[in-house]
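User: I'm curious whether this sequence folds into something compact or stays loose and floppy. Could you predict its structure so I can see for myself?
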Amino acid sequence: MLLSTAYFPPVAYFSLLAAAPVVALEACEHYGKQSWRNRCRILTAGGPMDLRVPVCHGGSRLITEVRIDYATPWVRQTEYAIETAYDSSPFFAYYRDPLFALLEAKPERLWELNLSLIRFFCEKIGLEVRVEPTKAFVPPGADVPDDWRERLHPKRPCLVPAKPYWQVFRERFGFVPGLSVLDLLCNEGPESVCIIK
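Assistant: Here's the prediction. I'll summarize afterward.
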């Protein structure tokens, strides 16, 4: 299976990870704007909200070299948005501190931040999957089995079926699919693995 890197990846991303013991993470592509590579979607009292990691313009566009822009207080704003959205969820308190520590470590590159988040969620959910970076770029459309690099995208319908789970604002919005796995983990905790598989 071949996936692109993602920031607080959607639940569907982890459903794909759960289906394969080894996943190739595309390390040789160029950074693509308006993708899950530097954005995620959470559910707030006002509805779905996208959170973004600002990246530096100029320099290498290779995904492993894209630098994070810390000129704005986006880490503090992201933590505030997450805390406001999930403070009343059943399991947020268990994951808050180690999760925020990953953001506050301020890694230099987007690749490093995303990889630390993917590993964090795999560990907390209980997924045993080996994620390996690719060594060469394979063009889209090449004969690669299970190429999900462009099939999981915030601007396209999700092709991975979503199993509904309990969400904090379900009375207001009903079940909202396509959210970050953070939403699932904060609401279902140890049962997240059952939803994903």
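Summary: The radius of gyration is 16 Å. DSSP finds seven helices and five strands in the chain.
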